Amino acid sequence: MRPTLSLIVGMAVMAAGLASASVDSAVDSPAMEVERSLPVVERAPGMVLQKRRTTKATWYGGGQLDNPACGGATPTDNSMVAAVSENGPFQCGDHIKLSKGGKSVTVKVVDKCAGCGAHHIDLTKGAFKKLGPLSEGVIHHITYST
After folding, report:
1. Model-level pTM?
2. Nearest 5°: CA angle at 114, between 110 and 28?
3. Pairing of β 48-60 and β 120-124
4. For a Cys staple, 82 with which of 33, 78, 107, 125, CB 3.0–4.6 Å?
5. What is the Cα–Cα distance from 99 to 104, expressed in whole angstroms?
């Protein structure tokens, strides 16, 4: 039996539906935490491709802001700046747009964070409050772009 074009298209549609169903059900599993930090390519307006990733954020303030590793003036609790890992994808001077649940903030990397993992961003109190309340302490699954 020779497959027809409609049979091939039907099988492809069915396979795509099964693949997305299994991915959707697996997204909430703890094992998928690592997978969420991998780059996802999306179509942006004007057919431009943009890399998007996810991270987690915490906040720091007060004396922890003194002597930023990247140099420059000491930021305040209300500065829109961040500290990042030495081993992460971010460098001093990078501007990072963070988004979560319809809220967003753009921060500049001015410091290094010794206790941060590669995809962990430590924000000032002011920047953190743009995404959620300080009482939350940690915000997971924040989308970022540079």
Report:
1. 0.65
2. 95
3. parallel
4. 107
5. 4
Q: Tens of pLDDT along 62-79?
A: 999 999 999 999 999 999
Running DSSP on this structure, what letter comes out for residue 87? T
Is there a contact between 133 and 126 (Cβ–Cβ < 8 Å)? no
pLDDT over threshold 90, residue 30: no
Q: Sign of the CA dihedral 121, 95, 75, 135?
A: negative
121 φ/ψ angles, rounded to the nearest 5 degrees: -120, 130
Instruction: Give the span between the Cα atoms of 72 and 143, in whole angstroms.
Output: 27
Q: What pLDDT score was predicted for residue 31?
A: 34
| CB of 127 closer than 8 Å to CB of 65 | no
Sorting pLDDT into bands at 50, 70 and 90, what band is 27?
very low
Q: Closest Cα to residue 107, out of 81, 132, 89, 126?
A: 81
Closest CA to 100 of 62, 66, 50, 53: 53
